[in-house]
Design a protein that fits this description.
alpha/beta, nine-stranded parallel β-sheet, homodimer
Chain lengths: ~375, ~375
């Protein structure tokens, strides 16, 4: 069977791109936002709401899923799509980032990383080959190479070492991925911290190896937005134009608009659901902290013109009450509202790019976040 | 405007009754199960799922709502229906039961009960008149009289004192309720513990005062199912046949079937949602504890023939995983599955009563809970 994976550029507008990624489980419209389904669930949100919000693709975390319920178990249950009853495309990360951020004990060697599970304390080895094997077992449409992600700020020597190791792992992953079913795609990950020379070397080397798409990793790990956007702006043009570009772990609505303007096609971030659970709503009028006391008597919905029923139907007073009363429904509703907001932000970007007015769209969107703040915001 | 509240008996089958309660917010098909929306939310479940499950009416807790967000605030926001965006009928309890069970300090006098709020420690007075006033402010379709509920076992003298006090409060409530908008109904509550003579005196006295419906309170408070059903079976026939009968706080699917067979029309209970959050699913094949390890590899849904999408679409392995991984979605899905189960149980009872086969329906339902246990259950 021919690999259904393909990226089609539909329109460009400056550096911004609109396109479609075809996968075995359907089309992903780009630029795309991928809600994060860490443990085979988008936290607190029913799959139906994720789809209704407009997500074409979700992300699953290899680190979490390999530890619990286990990759072999998921495979025996028909793969991640069947296991979690999500019929649309899935991208899985390689597990590298979570090993670095979650494991209480880890050792990185040429062969891979050995770490202590944060769940049961067992020692687990994650090699580039095993990272791919796990993702093949999970059955994701898009797999990611194993990489080593260094928190910033970091010494150049350390960033360079991790970047070079990630490149060698990229080759191991590519080799192991040859055994994958033909309907899967593998992305390489550009590392190099905030050093543009290292980023360039990483990007060129990955392109030489050849992947189905390219991610920019190692950002949103402590650096300023200015540094992040500088690296993105300089790195994206070095990546093959005919393949999708994914900025890992980014970010706020503002980050995403800026990165789309620099040629990024795919995003993932926990912000819409994590902030939602903590009472922060993303709206056209900017972020609103629904826990603030002045919402207690406010009969207005968060956004009467939203496409999201929860943003239209429930008053700010009611949402405020749910958080004050500790009702989990509050976090669920705000998570859904935020997922709709992110999807609509990207849908607006796609339309704007297709009609060559992305710069105006980004400027107007940002202006609205602040212009109406006096009457709407927190 | 004429009071739209009316109860129509559609069919009887032995002591079992099927009917309809008309309210200003719609029809309640009886026997009815009312999901509990303690703090203006059914815990962890979206309103849409509560409606989809088939609930015609939900219950709100006066004690909780008067403390937070406050009855006057809810009234200013348009009443409980508008506040929580629930357009169908709502019954509110009187707050008496929660004062007894939740308040760390309370004092019962002839005038009412004074208690310390479990939220902020403030001293609050709840008189029969205030209980009605709060419910008028909330705007519930059915209000309940303030009563004093005694935990069983208890001395007869204590049960009798509380029963007599509840009768005097019933008169105060009735009087105060005369100021309520005409589209509301008020129910009296039979007390008397496990003493049938006291129950009879309470029931007759309440009927003399005259209410729109009658509840049996003070059960499911520590007594055996046998005692509970004996009291229900003896008390229900003493209540006016032309008005609805509500058994407060009951119960398991078995309790409900037994009570329907004894002439009860309305139920409320936290079991479907509370047990759902704790991993217990009610199914046609009996209760299933999804946290048990042997579900981890089970690809079967909880019930492939359920009307509930979550019971059909998600495997036991996936639901098990959600609980093991601490994903709140697990509790939400099982709560929804249980609400569908309870509604379908009552819908089946209504149909069976209408076709004079309720005894068979109850027997077959109970048989199925155990007959298929070897292949399906926990």
């Amino acid at each position: 069977m021919a690999n259904p994976f393909a990226f089609s550029l539909i329109a460009t507008d400056g550096a911004a791109r609109a396109g479609e990624i075809a996968t075995a489980h359907g089309i992903v419209r780009t630029p795309a936002f991928m809600p994060v389904g860490t443990q085979a669930a988008i936290k607190g949100v029913h799959h139906d709401d994720v789809r209704e919000a407009g997500a074409d693709i979700i992300l699953g975390n290899t680190y979490h899923l390999m530890l619990r319920p286990g990759a072999e178990r998921v495979a025996a249950l028909g793969g991640l799509h069947a296991f979690m009853h999500w019929p649309l495309p899935i991208l899985t990360d390689s597990g590298g980032y979570q090993v670095m951020s979650l494991s209480p004990l880890r050792k990185v060697t040429e062969a891979g990383v050995t770490f202590r599970s944060h769940i049961d304390g067992a020692m687990v080895e994650l090699t580039p080959e095993r990272a791919i094997e796990v993702q093949i077992l999970l059955g994701s449409d898009i797999a990611m190479q194993l990489d080593e992600c260094v928190a910033l700020p970091a010494k150049r020597r350390e960033v360079e070492r991790a970047m070079n190791l990630s490149l060698r792992w990229a080759e191991c992953c590519k080799r192991r991925f040859e055994a994958a079913p033909a309907n899967r795609a593998l992305f390489g990950i550009v590392q190099g911290g905030d050093d543009q020379a290292l980023r360039e070397r990483s990007a060129r080397s990955l392109a030489d190896i050849g992947f189905d798409g390219y991610a920019i990793g190692g950002l949103a790990v402590g650096e300023t937005q200015e540094v992040m956007l500088k690296i993105v702006g300089a790195t994206a043009p070095m990546l093959p134009a005919e393949q999708p570009r994914y900025l890992i772990g980014v970010g706020t609505p503002a980050d995403i608009l800026e990165a789309v303007g620099r040629g990024i096609d795919m995003f993932d971030c926990v912000l819409p659901t994590r902030n939602g659970r903590h009472g922060l709503a993303f709206t056209r009028f900017g972020p609103i902290n629904i826990k603030n006391a002045h919402h207690a008597d406010d009969p207005r919905p968060l956004d009467a013109e939203s496409r999201c029923p929860a943003a239209r139907d429930f008053s700010r007073a009611y949402l405020h009450h749910l958080f004050k009363a500790g009702e989990a429904l509050g976090g669920t509703l705000l998570s859904v509202i935020n997922l709709f907001y992110y999807q609509d932000l990207l849908a607006g970007a796609r339309e704007a790019i297709a009609s060559s007015r992305f710069a105006d769209y980004a400027a107007q969107t940002k202006e609205q976040w602040t212009a109406k703040r006096d009457i709407h915001a927190s």
